[in-house]
Amino acid sequence: MGKNVPLRKCLGCDEMLGKKGLLRIVRTKDGAISLDPTGKMSGRGAYICKDAECFEKARKRKSLERALKCAIPAEIYDSLKEQIPNE
């Protein structure tokens, strides 16, 4: 039997994908929002594909705000977008 792969839903395309193939965006206890490259930061996390198109869909639908349960200013969205790798 194979190893169990944890699945997470992308906020942009709503597909269930392996946790390793997604980016984790986290809101810490003090309210800071950042990209979590290790996937181990403490705080409320949300997952998104490593794709700028999925990020824009999530931004337009405000699914990131719903998942992290807080309002996200445009500057945070812009800084997150700069950190997403273009593949």
Number of structurally distinct domains: 1
CATH architecture descriptor? 2-Layer Sandwich
Number of helices: 3
Secondary structural class: alpha+beta
How do the SSEs run, as a string of H and E? EEEEEHHH
Distance between the termini: 32 Å
State the major sheet.
3 strands, antiparallel
Strand arrangement, major sheet? 4-3-5
Radius of gyration: 13 Å
CATH superfamily: YlxR-like
What general form does the structure show?
A: globular
The CATH top-level class label: Alpha Beta
What do we call the CATH topology?
Hypothetical Cytosolic Protein, Chain: A
Mean pLDDT: 91
Extract low-pLDDT stretches.
none
Q: Which percent bin holds the helix content?
A: 25-40%
Strand content: 25-35%
For the secondary structure, the number of strands is 5
Can you characterise this structure?
The protein is α+β, with helices and mostly antiparallel strands and 87 residues long. It has one domain (7-83): Hypothetical Cytosolic Protein, Chain: A (2-Layer Sandwich), CATH 3.30.1230. It has helices spanning 52-61, 63-68, 74-83, and strands at 7-9, 16-18, 22-27, 33-36, 44-49. The protein has a 3-stranded antiparallel β-sheet. A hairpin with a 5-residue loop joins strand 3 and strand 4. The termini are far apart.
